[in-house]
Amino acid sequence: MTITYKLEPRDLRAFQRYAQKHLPNLRRARYIIAAWMVALCLWLVLSSDDHRIGFRIAYLCVLLLVFWGLFRLVTLAVSGIVQWRSYTSDKHKSVLCEHTVTLADDAFIEATAFNQGRNLWSGVYRVVDTPDYIYVFISLYLAHIIPKRAFPDAESAQQFYERASSLQSQAQPVLS
After folding, report:
1. CB contact at 8 A, 168 and 124
2. What is the pLDDT of residue 129?
3. 102 contacts 119 by C-beta, under 8 angstroms
4. What pairs with residue 34 in β-bridges?
5. Which uninterrupted H or E stretch holds 66?
6. What's the pLDDT tens digit per position in 74-92?
7. Rounded to whole angstroms, how far apart are CA atoms 73 and 161?
8. What pLDDT, on the 0 to 100 scale, is given for residue 132?
9. Helix/strand/coil for 142
10. Going by CATH, does the domain composed of 2-8+94-170 fall within 2.30.29.30?
11. Which of 123, 158, 157 has the alpha carbon at shortest distance from 138?
């Protein structure tokens, strides 16, 4: 089974959003930042001069909303600038190009004008299906991004995902 598609900056951004939401270390980092924000807000509330409980609860809620909003704003601004700078340069010309992916019986094969890669199914970490993409993870943080718009219809994308999942789950682990 073979599919050809052109990877675009929006595909990389979608993968980054997926990774930020689902990969364990990034999720853990969000929890740590949230805990620090809550701790800072509690410290500010408890150090205020007004001792009325209603005021303190309202003050805590406002502080949490402000800090959360500022965090989101800074995160979006920084990631937007970094993405714009990296996608407008020639640094990603070997990624933002036409890809041909083949699901062979023994390996996942990906080819572009710049490279060709072959990963045995026993070396594929997992295959993930999302509403708009299929991700074939080679390791915990490295994946091939396959946009579903490359398929003629949703059924073809589902067949591709099921075949990749089946080949990956049936692969025999390599003994080192």
Report:
1. yes
2. 93
3. no
4. none
5. helix 53-87
6. 877 887 777 666 666 566 6
7. 35
8. 92
9. coil
10. yes
11. 123
